[in-house]
Amino acid sequence: EVQLVESGGGMVQPGGSLRLSCVASGFTFSLYSMRWVRQAPGKGPEWVSSISITCRTTSYADSVKGRFTVSRDNAKNTLFLQMSSLKSDDTARYYCARATGRFDSNDYDYRGQGTQVTVSS
């Protein structure tokens, strides 16, 4: 059974930082590109970032480029998202997902339960 379990969310002030983690199980993590997607209340899913199998290729939405960094540790089946210079617009539930389709899309076949990120003063 494919499982993706996110952690690391919380409440942070504008300008702050958070590091999200996602532990994968039930499939060979190192054989799949992965992505982060987010969903704010009342809005549709928004692609945030993708990372290739070997970490050689990463891609980011314009809204987070330069502030967020995606990485992975294939030995530990873990995906990360380092978020800095957080803004109120970053408030959303963040999901780790196993990628399908185009690299810079929010297409996926499995997604975790998500972790809430709230940016507020």
Structure at a glance:
This protein has strands spanning 3-7, 10-12, 18-25, 34-39, 46-51, 58-60, 68-73, 78-83, 92-99, 108-111, 115-119. It is an all-beta fold.
Written account of the structure:
This protein starts with a strand and ends with a strand. It contains no helices and eleven strands. By secondary structure, the chain is an all-beta fold. The mean pLDDT is 96. The strands form two sheets. Strands 2, 4, 5, 6, 9, 10 and 11 form a seven-stranded mixed β-sheet that branches. Helix content is 0%, strand content 50%. It has strands spanning 3-7, 10-12, 18-25, 34-39, 46-51, 58-60, 68-73, 78-83, 92-99, 108-111, 115-119.
Properties at a glance:
single chain; 121 residues; mainly beta; seven-stranded mixed β-sheet; globular
Structural classification: mainly beta
Query: What share of the residues does DSSP label as strand, in percent?
Result: over 45%
Distance linking N and C termini: 40 Å
Number of strands: 11
Helix segment tally: 0
Largest sheet: 7 strands, mixed
Low-confidence stretches: none
Average pLDDT, all residues: 96
Order of helices and strands: EEEEEEEEEEE
**Considering DSSP H and I runs of 4 or more, what fraction of the residues is helical?**
under 10%
Rg calc: 13 Å
Shape: globular
SSE map:
Layout: E1 3-7, E2 10-12, E3 18-25, E4 34-39, E5 46-51, E6 58-60, E7 68-73, E8 78-83, E9 92-99, E10 108-111, E11 115-119
Parallel strand pairs: 2-11
Antiparallel strand pairs: 1-3, 3-8, 4-5, 4-9, 5-6, 7-8, 9-10, 9-11
